[in-house]
Amino acid sequence: MSDRNRPPHAGDPTTAPVTARASALHAGAWWIWALGLATAASRTTNPLLLGLLVAVAGYVVAARRTDAPWARSYGAFLKLGLAVIVIRLVFAIVLGSPIPGTHILVTLPEVPLPAWAKGVRIGGRVTAEGLVFALYDGLKLATLLVCVGAANALANPARLLKSLPAALYEAGVAIVVAMTFAPNLVADVQRLRAARRLRGRPDRGLKALLQVGLPVLEGALERSVALAAAMDARGYGRSAEVPRAVRHTTTALTLGGLLGVCAGTYGLLADQGAGYGLAVLVAGLAAALAGLWLGGRRSVRTRYRPDRWGTRAWLVSGSGAAVAALTIWASSYAPQALHPPAVPLTSPQLPLWPAASILLGLLPAFVAPAPAGHRTPGRGSRAVAERDAPAGEAPPPRRRATATGEPGAGHPTHTPHSEETR
Amino acid sequence: MIRFEQVSVTYDDAAAPALQGVDLTVPEGELCLLVGPSGVGKSTLLGTVSGLVPHFTGGTLHGRVTVAGRDTRAHRPRELADVVGTVGQDPLAHFVTDTVEDELAYGMESLGLAPDVMRRRVEETLDLLGLATLRDRPIATLSGGQQQRVAIGSVLTTHPEVLVLDEPTSALDPGAAEEVLAVLQRLVHDLGTTVLLAEHRLERVVQYADQVILLPAPGAAPVVGDPAEIMAVSPVHPPVVALGRLAGWSPLPLSVRDARRKAGPLRERLAQLDAPDAPAAPEGTAVTGAEPASVTGLGVRHGRVVALRDVELSVRAGETVALMGRNGAGKSTLLRTLVGMHKPTSGSVRVGGVVPQSTAPAELLRHVGLVPQEPRDLLYADTVAAECEAADGDAAAAPGTCRALVSELLPDVSDTTHPRDLSEGQRLALALAVVLTARPPLILLDEPTRGLDYAAKARLVEILRALAAEGHAIVLATHDVELAAELAHRVVVIADGEIVADGPTAEVVVSSPAFAPQVAKILAPLPWLTVPQVRTALRETP
To answer: Residues annotated as region Disordered (chain A) (predicted)?
Structure first.
């Protein structure tokens, strides 16, 4: 414990400090880093580069994630990525692929379709080229997912809220609460399916899942209502008195700004009007931002220990940005290496410089604060053990007839006096 | 500090008011205890103080409630947040953020306090509640007692003048409950906070109260007064009061200490009498074949956490065993392993001769039944009658079996009632009836007295005694030492996944201060454990 409370730079200033509230990395830095990797992934279909990106993200997660519950989501994202690849391949096999190929692996029986479904094919030839193309494509999507998963595991999503503009805070809380809804729902489903066993009904299978649906939804709703009551009683949504003129200005700016954004976007997308479209879009954005800023005056909220954006945050976000920028640049000077062709089949090469630039993404594994030692969550912690031991520990049964004859002796710990002097 | 003036509350769809004729004052700096049987409107009364009733729950409030001079009719809950701190029954439903430190700061952020003030108060509160070592921990990984303390801390940081708590110790083990009460005591004494709390487990709190508000029956006006005076007439009272009333002590003692001082003559008189018959466990049950439960060398792990280690336990027919131990010690895991919800990582579990985790649920039902901590989990149908029919079907029992059991346990429940509209005790009885439909020789109950008042508990004790007498083996996991003393032949104490004590109730509970029932503490070294035992002994020799 004493190690963790040490100021971050007490020792050697070059070693990363241990994660604690004071030295925690800004959540935004992790997201910028992860989005940088994701941008890089979106620019290439080279399986070796994509694999390298996944490895970089995985290494950083393994080195720097804490044992908090949200940090455990990384495995789920990995599985999701694998599922995406599998689904993409299955589609390529069953529905065929537009990629012309010569290496036929297998020919599935083709389902005859009516004339109006001319463009669609079910079954038929499965070519190696088509499969390889689908694999690269799926791998790209999976890498994107893994990058997002890494950000999720490394940065507490709720901490990002602290960096939102004040006017958006309450909407943000609603989103975060909604996000915790899903894990709670899953836990409820598991509990209730297990409970079916107690009624002598099978606890597996689709039917079991469907039958617990209603009770699960009821429970989730009740919990939401209880949370809403607790939040209300704790001052959620208190607002300051704002002069009427300011309120109206806020409304006008926000609404006008959003209208401007819509009109501007339409202008940009339409055939004519690209000229004024950009101007309207920028003006609309500015007005909407001003509205948000003014709206923030209605909120009385203050922020407790917001994350600080320090040198380490610059380094972490910078490494992600560098990976993105270098890969985008590489796609202009080495488009072939970043997009190995599926037709004709060639084994992909690992281009040296793009690979080296991706390795820059490993920087956070060394500069970000390290997770505090391997503490087992729950009752394993020393603090718990110390606190609960005297009450919960049951001495071996001894005969009642002791010298004092007072089995209850020596436990006035809960009388008011000893509490006052503590 | 809190003033109720002719307050009555009627919910929208209710025929009669939930609360009526409340006219009382809670002075500043008092610990005020709200008592009464289930369903008399305790939670409603607490809700009117924080403004959640009627602003959040709906309904109509007549009269006026003022807190620190603010009328709750004119102020919404969020506008009372700086004077009233509310902690509900379930601390998990209270948390908005996910780490301890953020949770403590949340209320202050909503009130817009300056960052340096927030920082100082968080540090103070961490120390006051002994949470400093847990400050960075995710709330989901804390034990029940720790969560309850975080919930109290999270409303304390705003420095409320009034603290409102609904059953703060019901879900906690005796040690954690004492921890929470010590904190409340400290707030009242050192900071002058006014505390209003409702609690069923009076044996834990009544000696700390300065004033007691008794709601005797639904819709009846509350009785307010000195704890000893109210306890003398209250329909709900802890064992120490029951013993005091039995012995005719006056003024009525509320704490074990006071009672011991008065108990000299009673102890002398009881010492002359024969010791009470320990509820003898039946002997020689080989006739029925396989033992209801036998566990050898059992180990269970949840991921990397070892939940149970090398557990040996056997339960005979007709025997009642109480599993005790702190929150998270592994009691529920042991019960769930007995119905096959967890797969043992080592050792073996046999229930009536079969291996629970590899037996089909429909077959297992004939060997063992578990009433889970939340009985609602067992109930799916939308009327009591439908639930009973389904239970008959599940257990392949003759139609009407379950309904007959329900009528026995709950004489006044109609067929069309929705299980959700039952009270906590009624729901437990319904779940028990559903489980009993298959007549399992082994019945498991997880924390059955949570949320039950003394009357419901007494009924439960009768039911379980009758079942044990019919030859059912019963295992119950409980924090309630009074229940264990009254019911169990044997007590098994689990700590950190291991069995640390296993023996006759009288020996095990009395040897541990945390698990000793009040009567045993008062009458020690005499072997009486419960008020009914003393009453029987005194009646036999007047």
So the answer is: 373-422
Same-domain pairing of B223 and B309: no
Nearest residue in chain B measured CA to CA from A193: B377
Return the SS3 of A202.
coil
Same domain, B232 and B372: no
Residue B105: inside a domain, yes or no? yes
User: Could you give the C-alpha distances from B344 to B308, B314, B512, in angstroms and in order?
Assistant: 9, 16, 30
Interface test with A, best of B118, B133, B304, B383 (most A CBs within 10 A): B133
d(CA A95, CA B193): 71
User: Can you give the residue range of the structural domain that contains B419?
Assistant: 287-517
B369 occurs within a structural domain:
yes
Q: Are residues B215 and B329 in the same domain?
A: no
Are B31 and B143 part of one and the same domain?
yes
Q: Is residue B163 domain-shared with residue B47, that is, in the same domain?
A: yes
- Cα atoms in the 13 Å half-sphere on the side-chain side of A157: 19
Domain contains B128: yes
Chains A & B: contacts with CB separation below 8 Å: 287
Q: Are residues B228 and B312 in the same domain?
A: no
Contact B182 A419 (CB under 8 A): yes
Contact across the interface for B364 and A200, Cβ inside 8 Å: yes
Percent of chain B with pLDDT over 90: 41
State the helix-helix crossing angle for A274-295 and A166-198, rounded to 10 degrees: 80
Domains identified in chain B, total number: 2
Nearest CA in chain A to B381: A215
Determine which of A72, A209, A241, A388 to mutate to test the interface with B (most B C-beta atoms within 10 Å). A388
Q: Give the residue from A188, A186, A204 showing the smallest Cα distance to A196.
A: A204
Which chain A positions have a beta carbon within 8 Å of B263's beta carbon?
Answer: none
Distance in angstroms (rounded) separating the CA atoms of residues B243 and B485: 15
Nearest-CA distance from B201 to chain A in Å? 15
Q: Which among B98, B305, B361 has the least Cβ separation from residue A156?
A: B98
Q: Is B527 on the interface with A (CB under 8 A)?
A: yes
B373: buried, middle or exposed (CB in 10 Å: 19+, 13-18, 0-12)?
Answer: middle
Q: Is residue B540 part of a domain?
A: no
pLDDT at position B261 is 92
Residues B200 and B292 in one domain: no
Residue B306 belongs to domain with CATH number: 3.40.50.300
- Residue of B108, B141, B326 with shortest CB distance to A304: B108
Tens of pLDDT along B446-485? 988 887 888 888 888 988 999 999 889 999 999 889 999 9
Regarding whether B119 and B10 lie in a shared domain, the answer is yes
CB–CB contact A377 B106 (8 Å): no
